[in-house]
Amino acid sequence: MTEPEASTGRATPLADLHRELGAELAERAGTLVAAAYGPVPDEVELLREECCLIDRSWVDLLEIRGEDRERFLSGMVTCEVRELGPGGGAYGFFTNRKGGVLADFVLMSFADHFQIELPPGRARAVDDHLSPYVLAERVKIVATESPVPLTVAGPLAKRVLRDLMDGALPAAAESRWGHGEVDIASVPVRVASRPLLGVEAWTVWAPIEDAAGVARVLLEAGANPVGYDALETVRIEAGIPLWGADYDGSNLPQETGLDEGLNFTKGCYLGQEVVARVHYRGGVNRRIVGLEFDGDEPPARGTELLLENRPVGRVGSVAVSPILEGPIGLAMVHKRAAEPGTRLQVADGGEAEVAELPFVD
Is pLDDT above 90 for 244? Predict the structure, then answer.
């Protein structure tokens, strides 16, 4: 399993605000972020019971512009994009010719461009992958650091957002992956549904120059500041794999279990033949599973896993779950090691038991 790309040296544009709020700033996913404001178990509890604000500046962003953007992008991704109008969104994968996952992404459709949210550090690789295929088509690929994703998450998130928006979210933002424009404190922002984070969530996309001010308004409205580490914990508890930690370019989309990102009626795209063959003719040999580790701390990411002394995979994302009161993780393993209840050996000592996902509903 590859690690996320080397540090870009970036710092969140909200670093001063995080320091003011008492955050521990640390490098995560190649960016200096608010790792935590207090004990991570307390922040996980806030995410599960209240409304929280997470500055997700660690994601990478690309914009696809030009008159041929729809036709071009449709031929490069696993999800349907042709039917999306302004305010629409989708989740999908960029794949290579062999069907390997170059990155997963969240797409937002606008009247004149697509915005693509990518895993940390993947913008350059995806740009390099796409650029040779542009040729004479009227398409432009642009990397950007604005707007800033301020994610409002938790069971009370919708209430807090509605209170700031005259009682209602933008209609499109009520649908999965949809988005719409509103004003917060006289700043035009875009509110987008953001599934696959482990808890109910929306992202408020704010202009970089106004992001700190918008964040303050969200905090004053009742959102609790929460860091990267707590959000990672609820993602792992929800069994949602992460590119670069739990899967990479050596994996097919079906191995991730994220079937929402696949459309088998949209027509051809790069890698489509391999992905479709797996879908129609047989399953995959590897899959994402949950692991409950013996002991008090999880092993390091990348540690080899064995079944009957034979390698079957490596440890991916890990955390200590406050709800399960112990160390858990995700791993891509061979299907013979994927049955819940299977006991696996951990190469640096100890064992782990394969668990049903999600760990926490």
Answer: yes
